[in-house]
Predict the 3D structure of the following.
Amino acid sequence: MVIKVKALVLENGEVFLKDVPTPTPQEEEVLIRVSLGGICSTDLEMVKGYVPFTGVMGHEFVGRVEIDPQGEFTGTRVVGEINIGCGSCSFCQAGLKNHCQKREVVGIRQRQGVFAEYVALPRENIYPVPVESPDEEAVFVEPLAAALQVLEQVHIPPSHRVVVLGDGRLGLLVAMVLAEAGLESIILGHHKEKMDIVKPLGVTGVVAEEFSEKVDLVVECTGSSAGFQKAQQILHPRGTIVLKTTVAGKASVDLASLVTGEITVVGSRCGPFLPALNLLKRGKLPLSKMVDKVFTLSQGKEALEYASRKGVKKVLLDMEC
Amino acid sequence: MVIKVKALVLENGEVFLKDVPTPTPQEEEVLIRVSLGGICSTDLEMVKGYVPFTGVMGHEFVGRVEIDPQGEFTGTRVVGEINIGCGSCSFCQAGLKNHCQKREVVGIRQRQGVFAEYVALPRENIYPVPVESPDEEAVFVEPLAAALQVLEQVHIPPSHRVVVLGDGRLGLLVAMVLAEAGLESIILGHHKEKMDIVKPLGVTGVVAEEFSEKVDLVVECTGSSAGFQKAQQILHPRGTIVLKTTVAGKASVDLASLVTGEITVVGSRCGPFLPALNLLKRGKLPLSKMVDKVFTLSQGKEALEYASRKGVKKVLLDMEC
């Protein structure tokens, strides 16, 4: 085994390629050779200072288990959940390790990330990938699970009018998930070519500024604090805003209008991997059309810069070349 | 019948006593001789410019029907719902006239209020008061219904820890409603003598700054935009904030932490009168202890000024003296 491996590291707000020691899997962990990583808006927000993280970046990936002390997963292609709970608090014991106050989060909080040749992860965090799904689709499982979390948290009656606000990476995945759940939705954005990706699923794309109707539910995926106000504008009284956007800083919110309209706001984060893998296996989602460009790990800094440009779709990092 | 009646009027942000024409009940309306009115924080916010209202103020009252063209209610002591819908929109037809976009709201929006000797109201808005309930308790039915709306909107499991944030008028009523629903709650405030009112119901009063535990649900009744931040601080991940506070202006909100904690925020406004009247009839709520002072209608301006002082409990207006 190599002693040092290449990794994309964030230190004091600076991103650079660095040789780091090969992760040593702890008890109940496996060592994974990362194939592909996906750049998420959270990565970009971290570079801007959203969370005070230092270490190897990245949390979306697909790879192959190289060392599993128990043997079960050795050689298996896997994706992985990013939250690692303490295992003993009331949240962990209720199966909500995502909310454990002492949790580590891969590439986000006290845990080395996946933008590296190797990553170590707890066995309970990894999931085998269906044989029929290519790496370019499997790398979307983590954000796809986050999109599915909307359906885990909120009941959406078939008669309700639903808007996905924002045609960015997460917005498109949410639109896909809603369509697969048989719900009709409208995606509001600014990039026709992106909204066209979900058109075959029956999702109507509309330029955000041209939409002035009222709907029952808005999934806010703009990645901008201004999105909340737009969501309020197009929402019926008694409507629901599902908040997916995490941006640094505070937003100016008209709380009184939430009361007057009896609006419900639901914060929504990471989601369940098993249904995401089932969706992947069905193979009906146009995930590969979401890939904008694949960079090598050595081009990581450039890739992050590219991913932060307006209108760019999914940017992947190939760790093997 | 008198041609002119005394009323407390708001015009261009100024409050004054004025002789206004006796209201003429329209078809399907009754004329009510108002006995007592209650001053609500919304009245005080209106004076500060929260809504651009001009006309007779007030929406909390108890009175006696003097003219009912259909006879049924003549002579009956009543309270009244304050929303008057258009009757034909989808909200009105779904029984949600509170959210009709064309609705009138008594003393708040395009409809003359109850701080007057007489008020006209639709027959469908009025409810007879139980014989055993004195006027000093019946005048609380409208805000008591608003407190009950929390239970209409949110399911609170008995195991959940609940905090009522704010020991103001609405906070105390919410604490009463939760206690009557068999739920244990903690009220956070700054006035021992006010929190002591709900102590006999089993509600624990704690000085707000001294409370640093985490709870599952916070009913935000501070009447201040700073309350939202405090609610976020004491909330468990996956917790719920029920927002009752309506204050003018925008608040600075950390939306990302709502996402990270998967917090739910539920705006909550007016509530159902029938269960509020049932609670009143049971006679177990210490409502009369909430009365701070009774002013005459002629002292209305002074009463509003008094009600806006910090720590003051419920202020009533006696329209008959």
Summary: The first strand of chain B starts at residue 4 and ends at 11. Chain B has two domains: 4-132+283-318, 144-267. Chain B touches chain A at residues 50, 91, 96, 98-99, 101, 153, 225, 228, 236-238, 243-248, 250-256, 258-269 (CB under 8 Å).
